[in-house]
Amino acid sequence: MTHKSRSLSLIALQKFKTNFWGVFSFGIVALIGFTAIFAYVLAPDKSENANQIQLSIHSKPPGFEVKVLELMPVKSTHQSFFSKWFFGQENPSTFVAISDFKEKNNTVTYTEYASDGLIGQSKSLNISNQPYKTYNKTFLLGTDKYGRDLLSRVIIGSRISFSIGFVAVFISLLIGLSLGSIAGYFGGKIDAFIMWVINITWSIPTLLLVIAITLALGKGFWQVFIAVGLTMWVEVARVVRGQIISAKELQYVTAARALGFNNFRIITKHILPNIMAPVIVICAANFAAAILIESGLSFLGIGAQPPMASWGAMIKDHYNYIILGKPYLALVPGFCIMILVMAFMLIGNALRDALDVKT
After folding, report:
1. Strand pairing partners for 4?
2. Which UniProt keywords apply (predicted)?
């Protein structure tokens, strides 16, 4: 039995490898996942949430270059590499966009950058105990309306969109597999009650239910993850219930009962491993749906809260710029959402074809 299951898995893997769009989409998801994990290593702005605000250079186009004065922290706080990797620098350097710079007698005099032909304010700084350096800085994707590096915000924002898929799918699997298995295996009044709960949950619009749960739990990062996961278990439960109703009458389940195995072992060790193919396909679709729901919540202002970087929140902050001549500020995060969602949908289609025993 073990040899046969491995053979079927290898066959499904070989069929998946022959699907160009499935493999290509898997590569895109892997690339975005790598970017999300190493976000603060790859982002030019390594401050927490890439929140270095420079209002003087707001809404600049891609490729914008400006001279900056970097003021390094006088006292460096001890921070582990792991903390910098996952949460950014706690005490980062301060950047000031400048147009002119002079140094004399331990005093630096600089003129702040000003656009539209204006002259910025001149300031002086005692550098006797202040380490600094000046250089030209290029913003590859430009800056947002607060003067923050748009590329850094997009890279760090990938964490929320990518991680919410895993959390939401995990919660939906935990609830959906449990309730679906109990309803399908035991039937009777238990099945009727669970199906009543499923139908009630199914009848409520998803976004409305997510908003209600979010408002009940409060605004925040993890609250959104839990809220999205609590609304995506219904489809998993329905599919699992239907599959178990069909599978529990098969011979291998009857043999397991005859051997005296308890119901929990029969469900978890015998039935569920044989019905996971459609569940895996649903999980891929739920991944994409969770990303869209989180983006919608952030757009409405009840998702990830500022200054946390989120693709949906970035669209909310800049959708007015679509008609103001700078549409890229909203289109860049929107394009990222589209690519990630499409990749998961194509992976789901490829998995459906690979796991189909009729092909």
Report:
1. none
2. Cell membrane, Membrane, Transmembrane, Transmembrane helix, Transport
Please state, in angstroms and as integers, the Cα–Cα distance from residue 29 to each residue in 25, 156, 162, 287, following that order. 6, 15, 9, 11
Token pair listed for 331: 């289109």
| Higher local confidence (pLDDT), 86 or 347 | 347
Whether the link from the prior residue into 307 is cis, omega within 30° of 0, is yes
Containing 98, the helix (H) or strand (E) segment is strand 94-104
DSSP state for residue 129 in the 8-state scheme: S
Average pLDDT, the chain: 86
CB-CB contact of 36 with 164 (8 Å) = no
β-bridge pairing 64-71 and 132-139: antiparallel
Give the single-character DSSP code of 329. H
**What gap in Å lies between CA 305 and CA 10, rounded to an integer?**
44
Greater confidence, 170 or 217? 170
Instruction: Please report the domains of the chain, with CATH numbers, ordered by start residue.
Output: 2-34+152-354 (1.10.3720.10), 46-148 (no CATH)
> Does residue 3 have a pLDDT over 70?
no
Write out pLDDT tens, residues 234-280: 989 999 999 999 888 888 888 988 888 898 999 888 888 888 888 88
What amino acid occupies position 170?
Answer: F
Q: Looking at residue 7, what is its pLDDT? A: 65
Across the range 65-82, mean pLDDT stands at 80
Q: Are 113 and 64 in contact (CB under 8 A)?
A: no
Rounded Cα distance between 160 and 308, Å, is 9
> Residue 125's beta-bridge partner residues?
108
Cβ proximity of 142 and 272 under 8 Å: no
